[in-house]
Amino acid sequence: MKSVFILGGTGLIGHAATSAFLATEDYHVTTFSLPPVPEVGVLDLRARHHFGNINEMSDAEIVKLLKGQDIFIFAGGVNSHFMPKKPAKEFFFQVNVEPVVHLAQLARQAGVSKFILCTSFYNYFHALWPELQLTGIHPYIYASVEQEMRLLNENGNGLTTIALRLPYVVGLVPNRVSAWVNYARRLHKAEFPLYVNHHNEATGGSCYMTAKQVGQALVGAADDAVISKSYTLGWSNISNESFLMHASKALGADIQIKPMTFRELQAKARKEAHENELAGKEAGLEPVAYTELLTRALYIDPIEALDVLDYHADNVEQEIHNVFASLDNKKR
């Protein structure tokens, strides 16, 4: 049997990956997560679980921890919604890029044969739409692209490096409030308007997949036959209007979704950017420029990833419902 080490084991992706690898009965699983330790009954006792901050450990301690591991999965880091103090570009580089490169180098020293990174599908759109200059404007996307590129540059000398570009991922972790809770709060406050064009037609959308599917894709990526490369994952392309309807229905509240013109949307974004400036903070996704992405179809055709990684069909719409149904007033 092979051994897999999952950094971020109690997060949505890490939890799903743990279940997926254990289901194969071909892997020993070790996870490493930030505290606190979850309640009894949450962790799968078939895996070994460690808690702490790996970035505070010495190189020797990390190499010792990784000895005997075959696969390293990086499912950690900070997502695009985190609002750091300025400058955000430096912050996201420090928390999302530097640890990946450093851990890949230490994994090689420890004899790990494959390092798999969970990164963002924004990397795909950066390459698809160079005219938007996404890495120059959005600190989070800059760091995400650097993270992927620098990891792939570490390929070789006994270590295979793979980057999985993930779209929006929906799912639940037992006894943990979903990361979508802030979205639900803003939806209740009517802070998620719907963009409409000059024909009064809603536009824009994004790609979604379930955490279960991501876990299956990670198992696929761990196979010896999968070479060093970036794979853009996805499953369901859903319009912004449809997603808002799914979410509001699941919340069980009478939520009014206000249509907005592009001009109105940008005015709202400018206000948000000004408030961030006054607070000395900077968004990972610059609010005004991000309105351009909100109006576009961020859709994925994952045919290559499906071919190679072999993840399976799942009911994304039902999982969206499950997530937002869990975010009722008591849990929020």
Automatic annotation (TrEMBL):
InterPro entries: Epimerase_deHydtase, NAD(P)-bd_dom_sf
Pfam families: Epimerase
Residue ranges of domain NAD-dependent epimerase/dehydratase in the record: 4-195
Protein known as: NAD-dependent epimerase/dehydratase domain-containing protein
